[in-house]
Design goal:
By secondary structure, the chain is an alpha+beta fold. It has two domains: 236 residues, Nucleotidyltransferase, domain 5, CATH 3.30.420; 230 residues, ATPase, nucleotide binding domain (Nucleotidyltransferase, domain 5, 2-Layer Sandwich). The strands form six sheets. It has a seven-stranded mixed beta sheet with strand order 18-19-17-16-20-21-22, sandwiched between helices. The protein has a six-stranded mixed beta sheet with strand order 3-2-1-6-15-14, sandwiched between helices. Strands 8-7-9 form a three-stranded antiparallel beta sheet.
Length: 498
């Protein structure tokens, strides 16, 4: 068959990637054509997403991807949580607020529980509703303090929906990102009126929910003319980038666990049913909507590479040296003798604009550990602490699901970090299958193939991905050392939380 070409827009919380995907009837191709930073903007006392810059970068990527190629379709996936409000004239009336803005964790947001209890939110949506950054909490705040904004709202849009609207002129959303809004009833796949009412919204202000892998619209003619490209289909994919990444895992069966590695880390396992009980809430686990109405049970940690990214920024400011990721890993490998660890989920490490290396040193002093002095020692502490945190939650996940996890699919940028991959294998005792790094883009691509009828479901798509990429394997070493190390880690967490 003649090779088909697709545009894959994968916009994460740190950067965006526009790729040209291809399918020749047997294997997939994925070529990165445009990459850009996602840099939020502080205006007044608030932190916003620079959606205009992101949208312009998406258009730049379309031009590059379409150059010399006929494009079949395009799909957009983004991070979860954040949203925009559209006015009655189709204009944006509330710029998307960044999930790390201080107001998104204000205790006043818990007032939502006066209208819809925590347990009720959980039973309706399946999501762990203690995450104050999520959309309904800030909508509740707006409804109580700035009701005129919601009264003048025509449509509520999650971030991928916002970009799709500007590309096509049509309002629509997709199951996985609708699930991530924590306003969708997972049993019916429709918006829940009780939650919406507490948030000052009605169903007619919500976009229709589509399945992943469907053609939803066409590139708006004016945009096509502006960019000098032929109009193509706008497809739904798993619009929540995590769900797209899960769809892009090259697993041969559905009984697998995964670790998504990026600014955030997510540990998860696909389950036939949602797991809903009080222990899930109290231990910080959640259920998330996957492709075609599936579910994955997961633990999302705000740590991930965020801490290292902030360290890297500080090292540049203080030393005027921009360390590459490869150089950081190389320096960390030389610093294995240091045995200090940190609690990567300590709130002290979650805010931006801080002296992160000094916070790590302070933590080590406070917990009577060796204080890191070099870039390599600091990086190694972060890698080891992340791996130990994965072990902690993997053990809890086995308890919740009753499964013994012996193999862990690792996806995202962390697959390039051989040191981290080996540490996770050593500490968890699981075999690590690392790849693809761009699993969200691969998941996005196979759902476009489904929309065009080239595959029937995600299972066929995963088989295609498996045939199309190389996977690195890591197996456990030094088990007795790391079993003792895990005990030390738990002791440090207890000391820190007293």
């Amino acid at each position: 068959m003649t090779s088909k070409n697709y545009i894959v827009a994968d916009i994460g919380a740190s950067n965006g990637r526009i790729s040209r995907g291809s399918f020749d009837g047997n294997t997939l191709g994925l070529e990165l054509v445009h990459r850009f930073e996602n840099i939020p903007v502080t205006a007044g006392r608030h932190l916003y997403w620079d959606y205009l810059d992101l949208y312009q970068e998406i258009k730049n990527g379309i031009v590059k991807a379409a150059s010399g190629h006929n494009i079949t379709s395009m799909a957009v996936d983004t991070w979860n949580i954040d949203f925009a409000l559209m006015g009655k004239d189709g204009r944006l009336i509330l710029n998307p607020l960044h999930y790390r803005d201080p107001s998104r964790s204000d205790p006043v947001l818990k007032g939502l529980y006066d209208d819809v209890s925590l347990d009720k939110l959980f039973s309706i949506t399946g999501w762990n509703p203690t995450f104050l950054m999520a959309a309904p909490y800030y909508l509740y705040y707006l409804n109580k303090t700035y009701p005129y904004i919601l009264k003048n709202t025509q449509k509520f849009l999650m971030m991928p929906d916002l970009f799709n609207y500007f590309l096509s002129g049509d309002y629509f959303t997709e199951y996985t990102i609708a699930s991530g809004s924590i306003m969708m009833d997972f049993r019916t796949g429709t918006w829940d009126e009780r939650i919406l009412r507490s948030c000052g919204l009605k169903k007619d202000k919500m976009p229709p929910i589509m399945d992943s892998g469907e053609y939803a619209a066409k590139l708006y003619p004016d945009i096509a003319d502006q960019l000098g490209v032929d109009a193509f289909n706008i497809s739904t994919c798993a619009s929540h980038d995590t769900a797209s990444a899960v769809a892009g895992i090259p697993a041969k069966d559905r009984d697998f666990a995964f670790l998504g590695t990026g600014t955030w880390f997510m540990l998860g396992i696909e389950t036939g049913e949602k797991i809903i009980n009080r222990d899930v809430i109290e231990n910080g686990f959640t259920n998330e909507g996957g492709v075609s109405g599936s579910n994955f049970f997961a633990k999302n940690t705000a740590a991930g590479f965020w801490i290292l990214q902030e360290c890297r920024k500080k090292w540049y400011k203080t030393g005027n040296k921009e360390y590459s990721w490869d150089e950081i890993v190389r320096l960390a490998k030389k610093s294995r003798a240091i045995e200090s660890v940190i609690d990567v989920e300590d709130p002290a490490f979650s805010a931006g604009g801080q002296d992160m290396p000094e916070l790590i040193r302070d933590f080590c002093r406070k917990t009577s550990q060796q204080v890191p002095e070099s870039v390599g020692e600091t990086a190694y502490i972060i890698f080891a602490s992340l791996a130990l945190t994965v072990k902690k939650y993997l053990t809890e996940m086995e308890d919740f699901t009753g499964r013994n996890i012996e193999t862990l699919h690792m996806i995202g940028g962390g697959v390039y970090n051989a040191l981290l991959c080996q540490l996770i294998s050593n500490i968890t005792g699981a075999a690590i299958l690392a790849g693809p790094a761009e699993s969200a883009s691969m998941g996005n691509l196979i759902m476009q193939l489904k929309a065009g009828g080239d595959i029937k479901d995600v299972g066929q798509g995963r088989e295609l991905i498996y045939r199309s990429i190389d996977i690195q394997e890591y197996h456990p070493r030094d088990r007795s050392y790391w079993e003792e190390g895990f005990d030390r880690f738990k002791g440090i967490l207890e000391k820190n939380n007293k």
